[in-house]
Specification:
It comes from Muricoccus nepalensis. This protein is α+β, with helices and mostly antiparallel strands. It is 36% helix and 24% strand. The longest helix has 22 residues, at 3-24.
């Protein structure tokens, strides 16, 4: 008997155990496709979701949740990561009953998503206290909801806990559609990696920062804004991040040309980028041969131009990310302009005539 044949009973036993677990699990488990088609739902899921199926049809997850989570499809479609959690502990009230469902959604890959549904109506009082916002969070909510500046409070892992009316009006979603959503679902891809790097740096040093970003509104409109991010100081809430937005009416792509004039918030790092993409594109195929040395020389040129507390890191797609620890935006713009010219000079003088000719018409973003 072959080794494969010997393993078959063991594999069959493991498969049967998995199926038994799925069908006996006390929580609802649903496997579905990006278009909402349900491929598998265990009995608990069917029991929990049948009240949402007015016509008895349980073949489409989005259709089932259409009345309680109408924006579910758009949030799933706009989630850019190849895999990850899209919703965490989203609470949904079943119409016509006192039932409260809690929904988690995970993207497994481009073709498969998993939803976990639980009935949390009859939680114990202790568990209810964990789920409910603490008194401090409710106090924060009452303050932030009155601000005219768009505000989001989310966990360190990106899941939204609270948004005020100004943010809801800006983005086009109501509060129920945003709580429990990963904020990355509202952001377009971050080609330079600046926003992601800024979050990671803040996790290390705890310092607030500002960075220019784009958001995608419900109707698909792309909005540019200056985002200020700060961690709450209270020890019990240190895992919470407060984000405020200062929208500015810029045409799409305007961020590539620099940051609009604004007042620098005292003690807040300004996150900016220097992109070599225009130069690498102009150089073409030769870039692969010189990129390593080019990035090293560029870093050596920029670093001495920064202040002692400023931070320089390499980003994605031939970009450098700069954290200005102090100073005004006008001063930052001057520093970046000087750095841009110095970097261009390096390419004009250090890599031969052919590269110099191709770079002559290119500019550093």
């Amino acid at each position: 008997m072959s080794e494969t044949a010997e393993l078959e009973p063991e594999a069959q036993s493991a498969y049967e155990a998995l199926i038994e677990f799925l069908y006996l699990a006390p929580v609802g488990i649903v496997k579905f496709r990006p278009d909402g088609t349900i491929d598998m739902a265990n009995p608990t899921a069917a029991q929990l979701l049948i009240p949402l199926a007015a016509d008895g049809d349980m073949s489409d997850l989005y259709r089932l949740f259409a009345t309680v989570a109408p924006d579910l499809r758009s949030h799933v479609e706009r989630f850019q990561s190849p895999a990850g959690q899209i919703f965490d502990q989203m609470q949904l009230a079943v119409p016509g009953s006192r039932t409260i469902l809690m929904l988690d959604i995970n993207k497994i890959n481009d073709t498969t998503l998993m939803a976990v549904v639980q009935n949390i109506t009859d939680l114990t009082e202790a568990r209810r206290e964990v789920v409910r916002r603490t008194e401090a969070q409710r106090l924060l909510a009452s303050v932030f909801m009155r601000l005219t500046t768009p505000v989001v409070i989310n966990r360190a892992d990106g899941f939204i806990l609270l948004t005020n009316m100004a943010f809801q009006n800006l983005i086009g979603y109501d509060a129920k559609s945003l709580v429990g959503l990963n904020i990355d679902a509202l952001l377009p891809p971050d080609p330079s990696g600046a926003a992601e790097a800024a979050r990671m740096q803040q996790a290390l040093d705890g310092k607030p920062y500002e960075v220019d970003i784009e958001l995608v509104a419900k109707d698909g409109t792309r909005l540019t804004a200056t985002m200020n991010s700060a961690l709450l100081d209270e020890s019990e809430s240190k895992h919470l991040r407060v984000i405020t937005l200062a929208p500015h009416p810029l045409p799409r792509g305007a961020l590539e040309g620099g940051v609009p004039a604004r007042t620098c918030v005292q003690g807040v790092s300004q996150v900016r980028t220097i992109s070599l993409a225009p130069i690498s594109k102009a150089i073409g195929a030769d870039w692969a041969h010189i990129s390593s040395r080019a990035m090293m020389l560029t870093e050596a040129i920029i670093k001495p131009m920064l202040g002692p507390s400023d931070i320089l890191k390499r980003g994605k797609n031939d970009c450098f990310i700069v954290w200005f620890a102090e100073g005004e935006p006008a001063q930052h713009n001057l520093t970046l302009a000087r750095a841009t010219q110095a970097v261009r000079t390096v390419f004009m003088t250090q890599f031969g005539t052919r590269v110099a000719e191709r770079v002559r018409a290119a500019t550093v973003g």
